[in-house]
Design brief:
The structure is a single chain. The protein has 189 residues and is mainly alpha-helical. The chain has one domain (3-188). It contains seven helices and no strands. It has helices at 3-12, 16-65, 71-99, 107-141, 144-147, 151-175, 181-188. Helix 2 runs antiparallel to helix 3 (71-99). The radius of gyration is 23 Å and the shape is elongated.
């Protein structure tokens, strides 16, 4: 049942017990939507904090290693940063959008627009990760410093990046995708 239908029934129903039931149903649906919105924000903030810690570690490595910091390491940092900025911006806008949404207004239209934007952002996240990993592999195998590394270390790096490719889609579904369940349930009712 759509929220607007519930509101109409609430206004049209003279029976006090029906009014209370409808009001409770409306509040329950809005509460579930707000929890999902907070979940989107929480996941985004946790991921951003992890990225900031990683980049701080890389900056410390650059500072301590100085000249020993190899050129392929710079390429990893630069390509990853450039590849992730559009996705981070869209995720930021999505979590701002859902957390400022007014649930008293045309909620169905807003929810449909938000879900379309959010799902597009998640697909963009997935594909940008694939593109970044492939570009990094190409750049590393054309880098003289990387080619001088022992074979075991090269295989470890390639294995790590291949694992990132395989786990990207499940990771996005697990962390971001499940937050949309409340929105999709709301739209189905």
């Amino acid at each position: 049942m759509e929220l607007d239908d519930l509101k109409e029934k609430w206004r049209a129903t003279p029976d006090q017990s029906s009014t209370v039931e409808i009001r409770d149903a409306i509040e329950k649906k809005i509460s579930a939507l707000r929890r999902s919105g907070r979940g989107i924000r929480r996941v985004f903030m946790i991921e951003i904090m992890i990225v900031l810690v990683i980049y701080s570690g890389v900056l410390l490595m650059m500072w301590f290693m100085g000249e020993r910091f190899m050129s392929y390491m710079y390429k990893i940092v630069i390509v990853t940063t450039i590849g992730s900025l559009p996705v981070v911006w869209r995720l930021y806008k999505a979590q701002k959008w859902i957390n400022t949404m007014d649930y008293a207004k045309d909620i169905r239209t807003n929810m449909i627009a938000f879900l379309a934007y959010y799902k597009t952002t998640l697909r963009m996240y997935q594909w940008s990760t694939y593109v970044v990993v492939v570009i990094l592999l190409v750049l590393m195998f054309t880098d003289a410093d990387f080619m001088q590394l022992p074979l075991k270390l090269k295989l470890l790096i390639v294995g790590y990046m291949s694992t990132a490719l395989l786990l990207t889609a499940p990771y996005i579904r697990l962390t971001y995708g499940r937050q949309t369940a409340s929105f999709e349930d709301f739209l189905r009712d």
